[in-house]
Amino acid sequence: MRRFAGQTVFVTGGNKGIGAGIAKRFAEEGAKVAIAAIDKDTPDTASKLADMTGTEVIGLVLDVTDGKAVQDAFGEAEARLGPLSISVQNAGVITIAKVENLTEREWDLNLDVNTKGVFLCCQEAIRRFRASGMKGRLINTASGQARQGFIYTPHYAASKFGVVGLTQSLAKELAREGITVNAICPGIIHTEMWDYNDRVWGKMLGQYGPGELMAEWVEGIPMGRAGTPAEVGALVAFLASADAAYITGQTINIDGGLIMS
Ligand SMILES: NC(=O)c1ccc[n+]([C@@H]2O[C@H](COP(=O)([O-])OP(=O)(O)OC[C@H]3O[C@@H](n4cnc5c(N)ncnc54)[C@H](O)[C@@H]3O)[C@@H](O)[C@H]2O)c1
């Protein structure tokens, strides 16, 4: 399928993990993709994806918490790839700490990247959709922790519940303009973030060796396995496609049945 031929897509955190799965899916389906992430090797990652898929992919080093930098990055993406029609707000961070040790800095980092960063990118994408008359698509990465808080991560859960709230609010504001806004809630997807979770949660919750906590939690998933970035990419591509034109303000779990609400 090449549902996005000629379209321009912006994907934050698109250089690795879930975001890389999303960016790859769009590139494979013919989109021109701008991946924007804080890691310095993002332009190199973009070049490799361009070579692999034969489509235009650019990599921008961006801190999504910096509003001016967000505006500049979207501007550069449109200048190089053409008017934007899809933006995926996927960049995120997590830290894990017992409540008495959770620092104000950690609280601010999680809320700044996971919630404010999503808002700033949505805001800039909306400005650009309106300027070009585009019935654009916004897709925001929340988390299973936007459904239910987990132990030692009140700041992360708060940041992801916030993503659902801003998604619903923007969906209502933009509905009459034909711009849809949806959120996704991945469960356990094996990425660098989950390597961190396994190590740190595992240590705090007991004597788990490498991979043991993740294996135990995966066992609790009805489908009995972790998900993949490619599977999340497929869901995001569906939400960005013409088939999803009547879907807005929704929050969709992609977790093998872990959370059924
Ligand atoms: N892996 C999972 O199981 C899982 C589950 C639920 C939700 N999520 C969410 O999915 C998203 C991607 O997670 P992942 O597992 O791929 O993580 P990851 O650690 O592999 O990748 C995180 C990405 O975010 C980018 N990033 C971090 N801070 C940034 C900043 N300030 N500005 C710009 N980019 C920044 C990084 O460069 C990287 O590309 C996150 O929002 C995460 O909270 C992941």
By CATH reckoning, the class would read: Alpha Beta
List the uncertain runs. none
Number of domains: 1
Give the terminus-to-terminus CA distance: 31 Å
CATH superfamily assignment?
NAD(P)-binding Rossmann-like Domain
Helix/strand order = EHEHEHEHEHEHHHE
Please report the total strand number as a whole number. Answer: 7
* Overall helicity: 40-55%
| Spatial arrangement of strands, main beta sheet | 3-2-1-4-5-6-7
Verbal overview:
By secondary structure, the chain is an alpha/beta fold. It has a single domain, classed as NAD(P)-binding Rossmann-like Domain (Rossmann fold, 3-Layer(aba) Sandwich), CATH 3.40.50.720. The chain contains eight helices and seven strands, in the order βαβαβαβαβαβαααβ. A seven-stranded parallel beta sheet has the order 3-2-1-4-5-6-7, sandwiched between helices. Helix 1 crosses helix 8 and helix 3 runs parallel beside helix 4. It is globular, with a radius of gyration of 18 Å. The mean pLDDT is 98.
